[in-house]
């Protein structure tokens, strides 16, 4: 399966979001970090900004909701134009119902696990999803160091996906860069979020090409 590189606009200039979105048009998806200052200690953007971004770029939006009560809010992000919506299982009251609702509205349903959340209790939920996100930093901020101790969890997630014969993307997010992406790919990830490694580069489009090359080898 081809790999996907998803630059995170958390590391972009928020005053020039449309331009920053266009600067990474070689990307597969644009990763949009929604934070509510409750689920994580940081605040970013919400539905109206996603709606405008969806108009401003042809790149599909991959919305990562780091918010309380995703059961209520996630469907609104699909309506705003997100092609993929990720909710955190730690915050969801009814993850199966929510995943089904996201899919029914026409988006890719994805579930995220914080570093301390084990994958095993959610094995039976995997068929309800299009993507699983294994966080490789504590969610909340860009530019943090990659947590190597998450590599075994990525491996276990890949084993479970394969064991059930599922077509499920396995995404990693946090500290993914030229120095860590190969380890993630080797462990079984195939969708790579990169914030600072893309927007901190001289040429974001070049950085995407380089990361893709590394992940494919
Ligand atoms: C962190 C966010 C990430 C963040 C990654 O909570 O979910 O998407 O933008 O940034 P880097 O790639 O700089 O770790
Ligand atoms: Zn994210």
Automatic annotation (TrEMBL):
Q: Which organism is it from?
A: Streptomyces bungoensis
The Swiss-Prot or TrEMBL record annotates one GO molecular function as: metal ion binding
* Cofactor: how and how many bound: Binds 1 divalent metal cation per subunit.
What does the record give as the function of this protein? Catalyzes the reversible epimerization of D-ribulose 5-phosphate to D-xylulose 5-phosphate.
Entries under InterPro entries matching the protein: Aldolase_TIM (IPR013785), Ribul_P_3_epim (IPR026019), Ribul_P_3_epim-like (IPR000056), RibuloseP-bd_barrel (IPR011060)
Annotated binding of substrate, by residue: 8, 64, 140-143, 173-175, 195-196
Q: What is its EC number?
A: 5.1.3.1
Give the pathway annotation: Carbohydrate degradation
**Sequence positions that bind a divalent metal cation:** 31, 33, 64, 173
Catalysed reaction(s) here are: D-ribulose 5-phosphate = D-xylulose 5-phosphate
Write down what this protein is called.
Answer: Ribulose-phosphate 3-epimerase
Q: Which Pfam families match?
A: Ribul_P_3_epim
Membership in a protein family: Belongs to the ribulose-phosphate 3-epimerase family.
Which HAMAP family would you find in this protein's record? RPE
* Record GO cellular component, one term: cytoplasm
Q: Which gene encodes it?
A: rpe
Q: Which cofactor does it need?
A: Fe(2+); Zn(2+); Mn(2+); a divalent metal cation
The UniProt record lists the keyword Metal-binding = yes
Query: What GO terms describe the biological role, i.e. biological process, of this protein?
Result: pentose catabolic process; pentose-phosphate shunt
Q: Which UniProt keywords apply?
A: Carbohydrate metabolism, Cobalt, Isomerase, Manganese, Metal-binding, Zinc
CDD domains (alphabetical): RPE
At the top of the EC hierarchy, this enzyme's class is isomerase
Q: Which PROSITE patterns match?
A: RIBUL_P_3_EPIMER_1, RIBUL_P_3_EPIMER_2
What does the record give as the active site?
A: 33, 173
